[in-house]
TrEMBL record:
The lineage of its organism: Bacteria, Bacillati, Actinomycetota, Actinomycetes, Propionibacteriales. Gene3D superfamilies: Hotdog Thioesterase. It comes from Kribbella speibonae. Belongs to the enoyl-CoA hydratase/isomerase family. InterPro entries: HotDog_dom_sf, MaoC-like_dom, NodN-like. Pfam families: MaoC_dehydratas. This is MaoC family dehydratase.
Length: 160
């Protein structure tokens, strides 16, 4: 990034891939905790013995929405001020997700990591900017990604 202007730096980053993040292991404890929080106790997630016997995956798998919820931490691990400096930001909020897909499962004990690519930057007024990042989560050893989604967020920049 060459410009001192945070919006110019963001616009320069459009289309440039970032990452990957460090690997992160998905545990049964995390899957169980997510099941408790979400109310989704489907056996394919929380019953290792049954999953071993009956699941086409031979083990429990993470909820797709658990994988989605891990994206913020994975992407944060690759940012390090690369696209924007936190000092430029007053507040940031998650606005949601576009085009969410889970092409392959995340078996318990798998390691996942993410890559991100800034797709767009759009002014929304009053110092707010909307950013769309295309995020891909891969599972170590899998040919297909675990998830592909567009993360929509808004930043309000500090007044200069």
């Amino acid at each position: 990034m060459t410009s001192g202007d945070p919006i110019a730096r963001l616009r320069e980053a459009i289309g440039i891939g970032r990452g990957p993040s460090p690997w992160r292991t998905v545990t049964q404890e995390e899957i169980n905790t997510f099941a408790d929080l979400s109310g989704d106790h489907y056996w394919i997630h929380v019953d290792p013995e049954r999953a071993k016997r009956e699941s086409p995956f031979g083990t429990t798998i993470a909820h797709g929405n658990l994988t989605l919820s891990m994206i913020d931490a994975l992407v944060e691990a690759i940012e390090n001020g690369e696209v924007f400096d936190d000092a430029d930001v007053e507040v940031g909020v998650n606005m949601g997700w576009n085009r969410v897909r889970f092409p392959s499962p995340v078996p318990v004990g798998s390691r996942i990591r993410a890559t991100a690519e800034l797709v767009s930057v759009e002014e929304k007024g009053n110092g707010w900017w909307e950013l769309v990042d295309r995020v891909t989560v891969e599972t170590e050893g899998s040919e297909k990604p675990a998830s592909v989604a567009e993360k929509v967020g808004r930043l309000q920049l500090r007044r200069q």
